[in-house]
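Help! Submission page says 'invalid entity' but I think these are all valid:
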Amino acid sequence: MQPLLLKGGRVIDPSRSFDQTADVLVQDGKIAAVGPTLGTPDGVEVRDVRGAIVAPGLVDLHVHLREPGNEDVETVASGARAAAAGGFTAVCAMPNTDPVTDNQAAVGFIVRQSLRAGWARVHPIGAISVGQQGGQLAELGEMVGAGAVAVSDDGRPVASSHLMRTALEYARTFDIPVADHCEEPTLASGGVMHEGLVAARLGLKGIPAAAEEIMVARDLLLAELTGGHVHLCHMSTRGSVELIRRAKERGVRVTAEVTPHHLTLTDRACEGYDTHAKMNPPLREDADVAALRSALQEGVIDCIASDHAPHAYDAKEAAFDDAPFGVVGLETAFGVAHTELVQGDVLTLPELVARMSTIPARAFHLPGGTLQPGAAADIVVLDLATSWTVDPARFHSKSRNSPFAGRRLCGRATLTLVGGKVVHDAGAATP
Amino acid sequence: MAVEVLELAHGTEHLVLIGIQRRGVELAERIAKLIEEDEGVVVPRGALDITLYRDDLETVGPKPVIGPTHLPGELTDKHVVIVDDVLYTGRTVRAALDELADFGRPRRISLCVLIDRGGRELPIQADIVGKVVKTAPGDRVDVLVEELDGRDQVDLIRGAPSGVAA
Amino acid sequence: MTAALDKDLVGLAPLSAEQIRLILDTAEPFKEVSERPIKKVPALRGKTIVNLFFEASTRTRISFEFAEKRLSADTVNVAASGSAVQKGETLVDTARNLEAMRIDMVVIRHPSSGAAEFLGRRIRSNVVNAGDGKHEHPTQALLDLLTLRDKFGRIEGLKVCLVGDVLHSRVARSDIWGLLKLGAQVAVCGPRTLLPRRIEELGVTVFEHVADAIQWADALNVLRLQLERMEAGFIPSVREYYRVFGVTAERLEKAPRPLTIMHPGPMNRGVEIDSRVADGPHSVILDQVTNGVAVRMAVLYLLAGGKPELADAAKRGGGPGGPPD
């Protein structure tokens, strides 16, 4: 592979608190050197990235790639391609596929599909329970052996506290986190949006904040009981934030994520029965958005994850009750986060890079999230100067269900490298 | 006109006066009062709103307020005299005839108008006419009555913006 | 005609007070049409209307059908049972099929909130909401308003309390919007399990006890209690519901003035309402049914009106009595 020199960009590497104008030399798939005005070895390709940001590739702990089972909507390859376009070099695929990714063979399949596709790295997450049925514990050890980086029954909450306890205890041997979709099923049953004033007005069944908070509290208590690592998916309420804050003060092993949409939208987006605002957990209220933003700022919530959830183009063309939950997010996550959080003075740019790359990589013990010489060359070049309009028709994802269609955003990936290989180059034809 | 109505109807025995909403109702009322003063007989009278029988709902849009329709009992075997302010295309009278047919079968129906401005689009003629006025299609004839408008007056407004009292 | 209606009637929330008054005023002459020997006017002759009922509803469907027939429209009834819907056709496909048949209006009843608005945005025909999920039932609220206006001569300043299952009631939501917009004071009363959270923020008062509501109100609208609410655990039993929240003759005796009693029907006698109350001298429940036809005629008539641009063109040259002759 031809060596590549990224010349003159602002290099931000939160893993070393590095933030200065520098060159980055990529050789043999690894980061060979980072420093001001590096020399130009023979045969090197030089990319002038002055004015742009060079950062470790973004890492998304929560995506749904729908393969196997629903390949019309997304595949490992199309999802990984969308990830690369969004600046992500690694994503973690949830196991609610059909059949469920609940054994080593299924995990191995995802790994092979990812390698064959060759875009962003796809790390499988295995199921906690067989068939995500909430009963028998799945073979965690074998799944980890095949490449699983975490376990989760996401898409379905873990209703049984006994199962959650067992998973947290058993997962300690393999040092993987147990990721939970926190939702008390009897409280949330039949709900389609946040239980609040908008739901009262629209006549839609609400999901109360307490449905999430009860399970957050339970999971934190069980993590404390077992010493296991719990990862709380897509936090949405101010109450959850407070519970996590107190647990972290007690030293509970917890990490938590929040999505770009929960950081920027409220239940008002459901007005007019807009099914693109239907997601689970639901969009909450202004006070929740404010609490989630400060939690991210303070580190109570560790990272941003997209919860990329593709659906067929016509599935959302339905009455609100009948439409599926979920939105795509890989190709808008950075733009939304940068526009709303960095330009909105919630986070500094290095803090945002940390919360979308270094910190999530560490949470799931993934390679990446660093520009340390010697590390794999998973790198993103970000253009923060040009604003662009979200046009779902131009997504690389197979699906279009975005709540941000038509939004003017500032910040997007122009170049994405995985293991030194260019997987996305906005300035060139599709590689 | 009241005298003409009496002549036409051969007296008041079977006579019913029906005014078309809105100004026809007032005119019918006045004719009835005059007959009452002269003959000492109370003539049954009614009001008809033909909005729901118009054939141009698509083009003019629904009228925001539909006036009341009330008829003085059975119409069968009566001599109904329809009273309206202005006779123009004839479509209002056509609608009134349709509507009256849904209420009964009068022995005879006659038409009495204050102004005949010509311009008929249907083969309809008035039996009694207060005044014939020659008009062009762009003109407007406004009948004002004291009960509704504060004064009795007929305005002929030519297609051009400037108005001339007739 | 600033008060003219939009293409569809999906609810009272989007309407202005002027638009609501326009419908009520237009309904007045239609009451008289139903008293005529031939209860039919040709206003909607040649119009085709589909009554698309995804939920069983005898009385609303019949009321709409009478309204349509008395306006001389051609009507087709499509009920959920046996229709393509049960064979898995989506609402959007149903909409496209109706559009392809070039119908003029759709009256839709659907179990999902927002279904009428969804349909209205996808077809050119006028859409009338005959009840969507727990969202709105605008013609029911309009007939409630007309009945109250007949009885009291005004809506402004009236104190109206909705009693019962507000949470699952589309009638309640439409009533709240309509009454508030016309200047009434609105309260709700029922078990907290059957009141939407934060309902106070819509501008209504909440009474925990029916006795308090009776002391306060000029009129009660007693909502139907669906018996499946008991199975879903919202109330312990129908028997207890009647004892705690039933509108009974004994409770009404303590009212400072006679209360007008309304019910959207169909009634569960001895569950939410005492038969003596339903059949009593202050019940206007059957007037509501009569007014239902008039209100629906008014809505269909107003929506059927031509395209605004044509109306404007036709209005040019009209005298004070309206369009020329």
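Support: the input was valid. A stray whitespace character was the problem, and the output above is from the cleaned input. The two ends of chain B are 19 Å apart (CA to CA).
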